[in-house]
Amino acid sequence: MSSQLQNLNDLLRAILPANAFYQRKLGSLPEFSSLAEFSATVPFTTKEELAADHEANPPYGSTHTFPLDTYHRFHQTSGTRGKPLIWLDDPGNWTWILDNWEWVWRGAGVKSGDTAFFPFSFGPFLGFWAGFEAATRMGVRAVPGGGLSSEDRLHLLRRSHSTILCCTPTYALRLAEVGDRIGLPAGTLGVAKIVVCGEPGGSLPEIRRRIEFAWGARVYDHHGMTEIGPVSVSSESDPDLLLLRHESYLCEVIDPVTGSPVNGEDTGELVLTTLGRHGSPLLRYRTGDLVRPVPHGGHFALKGGVLSRTDDMVVIRGINIHPSSIDAIVRTFPEIGEYQVEIDQRTALAELRLTIEAPADTASALAQKLRSTFSLRIPVTAAEPGTLPTFEVKAKRWNILR
User: Fold this and answer.
1) Domain ranges of the chain
2) Which residue in 235, 239, 273, 280 has the most C-beta neighbors within 10 A?
């Protein structure tokens, strides 16, 4: 029996019938003889189901296998797909999560004795706390940068001699812009590795190259979810490849419309089962992440990382447009600072337009490039530097008018 299958059956024995959510959903299950049998038998779990469960069983839902007084970690999802969900973890869960984050750090070449800088304020999202705590557990000197301005963070980054930076792709670029403005260029600060997460930019070649050029550092992508945990890290040998932690997750890729497995390397939705998170498990969870699986090491990896999300795509004049595709084009213009996208769906034919912090001639050049790429006229307006919102964590650049 494979280790994945053994871990899966161990999980099911641990959570049924104790876990009220899955007991209601599944009843009893046999011991599975194959992963294919599990996928054919067990239905998907959706974010909508979890939201309904939280509404019916406030405030934490009923996805807990053990008594509530054994849960000591409290986190909350970002709410990008609806109302935020509170997610609790017991000590066993938390150890498993830290193990997975250590795998991410090691995949990025981070080791005991390194110094890592975390330039964000710690909110309720799991990734902040788990990444920081896993780093300290493995002997990394972890420097907190919360509650500071970007200027102060750059000075602290220099004084702490940090060689590792962990942030979103957007904020890595933002820090580099601020550094140039105050005479503290990012490339002079000694950062050797940047682990980015929260957005798809780390696996988009144009954005990755722009960050690496500004910092003189290697960029490693990573993704995860509060309700799932840390899932992936860039391949050391191929930066376009995102490796999955298959020993901790049963990973599937499905057609988001039919729910059937995708054929070969077709793009589909990533579905995950948390094999070691017994205290608050998820079985066949539809993540909403669109990915392209390619064979790797007896399993599969993700070519180009997380390409987009099933609920982020907009259709303009019959053309499917994802935020990552717009971002990749915008970032080919190094003179563009922040930008915003507005999608107006108040009329029969939806309209898309951009506002960028750049000169008027750049706005014209970007509009031409967007038109040649998508065969659409997409108006681009120039704005003064510093007039558009900036972001420390997940950027919210798409505004939909309905």
Assistant:
1) 1-310, 312-401
2) 273
